[in-house]
Amino acid sequence: MTTNAAATENFKAARDHLVGLQHDYDTAKASFEWPRFEEFNFALDWFDHLATQPESKDRNALVIVDQDGPETRRTFAEMSQRSNQVANWLRSLGVKRQDRVMVMLNNQVELWESMLACIKLGAVIAPTTVMLGAADLDDRTQRAEVSWVIANAGDAAKFGDVPRELTVIQVGDEDAAQQSHPTHFWPDSFEAPTDFTPDAITRADETLLLYFTSGTSSKAKLVEHTHTSYPVGHLTTMYWIGLEPGDVHLNVAAPGWAKHAWSNFFAPWIAGATVFLYNYERFDAKALMHQMSKEGVTSFCAPPTVWRMLIQADLSQMSNPPRKLVAAGEPLNPEVISQVENAWGTQIRDGFGQTESSLQVGNTPGQPVKAGSMGRPLPGMDVVLIDPATDEIGDVGEMCLKLDPRPVGLTVGYYGDPERNTDAFRDGYYHTGDIAERDADGYLTYVGRSDDVFKASDYRLSPFELESAVIEHPAVAEVAVVPSPDPIRLAVPKAYVVLAAGWEPMPRPRRPSSSTAARHWHPTSAFVVSSSMTCPRPCLARFVASTCASARTRSMCPTAVPAMPAPSSPTRTLPPCAADACPRAPRCRARPHEVIRRPGAAHSQEESMPQARKNSDPIAEAGRQWAAHGWAEAATGMTAVVSVVRVHQLLMARIETALKPFGITFSRFELLALLTFSRSRALPMNKVSARLQVHPASVTNTVDRLVADGLVERRPNPDDGRGTLVSVTDQGITLVHEAAKALNEVFTDLGLDTPQQEQLLDLCSAYRRSAGDLT
To answer: CA–CA separation, 351 vs 366, rounded Å?
Structure first.
């Protein structure tokens, strides 16, 4: 029942104002004012209102379709009545206002029933992913002060090892999955009354949600939201997506992640739209598009991983594709946007928000979309860019929200963490920690986290932007960009590139053509890739790069590529691995500077590289030439460096040959092995990157391919609202064990006896220790 008619009317007026101005951004931005309440309860004052209106009460509020056939459909009226039952039942069990309830469910109807019921009761919801184990649950129940848990039987069992005093509400099996805590069973809720009367008003500033999200410390941050910061704040999210009454909205997200509440709960139900879910074991683009057509999906939101997999399928099979397309979770590469637009005639619109807020910046319906831009600040969001070094407001800097007036869609802070709150809310702004650039039209382009960007000459460069430019080339399978020290320019960007299958390199660098590359690549840093160094280990790359840096001038390195004129060629230049920039002699057979050549393309005589004399060691000859040119003091070091590089090439060739029958590269094997050997056989993406010493962008691309092959699964990371947890599948584990047998034949036959292997290991360890790679 609706308990606050004035709140309902004020909220509806704000909703209708934005819906009516969906295609008029300027007017919406100038005229919108947040509705502000002393009292507000989303479930009672808004959802129940929709459940009583003639135009919406019989409309589907929720549709869930499972891959194996079962379907669940609930109208607004049915969901209102059912949530009343659940609220009455929970209250009879002892759930009180502001009690902390951990909701740990999959995409199933009980999740939505639970959330609506808890909102009606005034209980605090702690959404939690089913991926968590007992240790994480122990920590989170303590920090969030949880006293109630709602979970399926399989997940309820995990709480048997959680010492905190809890009451478990078990969905599904009616045999208690654990014996440590009192258990109640969900079917009993159907006996409760269907009319609900709240025991008190709901203050707008009461806590409603507690979300765990990533932090710089080992423990996740605990983000606190009120009965207005998400329920009212997601008016901006609704406006960004373009949702309106009657839409059918599909959002690909897992429960426990804030984006699930954004687009599977608040934004569509604010609009009076239908929430549609399609549950599947393994991603199938064709099946997903079939369901979208069958259910008449009009609005679709998905993370970039899903979009990248979708474009591998025939997008034209959809005769009535969604009219509203958005992406969230991480910036989307322009190439994906282009392919979807060509097939469906609609652009994917990017946006930016955080667990801490509703959508702050977005490309809104009907407005020009600039490639690579995440759009403009949403109505009600006053975004400024502050230089982290000078604290000055400008066109490049940390994205900050003005706190006067404070946007409704912003967290009240981090629960129990005054120090972090002081840092995030200071000088009249909320600091996001994300860097962006604003153009003359007010569009913002995501640059990166504040600790990712680096400066070259007088330019701020973003690894993501550079990687986005390079990855467009069809020859590039994986790429990671890092800064390389430069005595004049402070740093220059270097790219580590893995070639796609079926491509091979050819000599002679070419000029960049893409406008993206032209904007961000400093010309003198445009080196080209060597096929023989497709996947260098980071410690080796640091070894070679540091040796190159010790050279007196860049011209000493015969592999350096001269500065290039303004771009005009239609061929993309690909930067090199750091190992390719080593001071290698002209006679080296490894062909240090190369560009990508399509299979079968012939080399011209001009392109051919000098070959070493017969029966001579080209590396030893390079050392002699180095000494002869006046650099005798460095000749031995140079020869050692190049020898290490060459040995790496030889070993990698054997390793790749051993792995070829299994259809994977060594980098993919390493990732699979890391997951297989971990205790839970799953790790967060950031830990995968750290343990493999590989840039996150390369890990992302590698995981995409392993997901497509069914070797790993990718899910939202419960400790990081914008991160990902990767787990190895049974198929992946089997492959690791089979491939390891082939690799062991290489490892046991290095051509060195055991004492020599131990000596080699000692030398490598000594260098790694001196370089700071070991402690």
So the answer is: 15
pLDDT of residue 775: 62
Q: Which residues contact 100 (CB under 8 A, 6 or more apart)?
A: 123, 124, 126, 144, 145, 146, 147, 148, 210
Q: Are residues 111 and 21 in the same domain?
A: yes
Model pLDDT, residue 571: 30
* DSSP result, 649-674: HHHHHHHHHHHGGGT--HHHHHHHHH
Render pLDDT for 696-744 as a digit per residue (tens, 0 to 9): 656 777 887 898 889 999 887 777 665 678 999 999 999 999 999 999 9
- The secondary structure of residue 336, as a DSSP letter, is H
Q: Is residue 645 located within the same domain as residue 675?
A: no
Render the burial of 638-667: b for 16+ CB within 10 Å, e for the rest. Answer: bbbbbebbbebbeebeebeebbeeeebbbb
Domain shared by 602 and 709, yes or no: no
Q: Are 584 and 639 in contact (CB under 8 A)?
A: no
Q: Are 160 and 746 in contact (CB under 8 A)?
A: no
pTM of the shown model = 0.64
d(CA 285, CA 77): 33
Structure tokens at 116: 């609506």
Condensed to tens digits (0 to 9), the pLDDT of residues 417-431 reads 999 999 999 999 999
The answer to whether the beta carbons of residues 449 and 433 sit under 8 Å apart is yes
DSSP state of 466: H
Q: Which of 623, 654, 685 is the last residue of a domain?
A: 654
Q: Are residues 560 and 434 in the same domain?
A: no
The residues of the chain scoring below 50 in pLDDT are: 216-218, 457-459, 487-488, 508-615
Contact between residue 119 and residue 127 where contact means Cβ atoms under 8 Å apart: no
The answer to whether the CB of 467 falls within 8 A of the CB of 479 is yes
Under 8 Å between Cβ of 527 and 575:
yes
Rounded Cα distance, 522 and 524, in Å: 6
Q: Supply φ then ψ for residue 661, to 5 degrees.
A: -60, -20
Query: Cβ–Cβ contacts within 10 Å for residue 594, how many?
Result: 24
Residues belonging to the chain: 775
pLDDT in tens, 172-225: 877 888 888 999 999 999 999 999 999 999 999 999 999 998 654 446 789 999
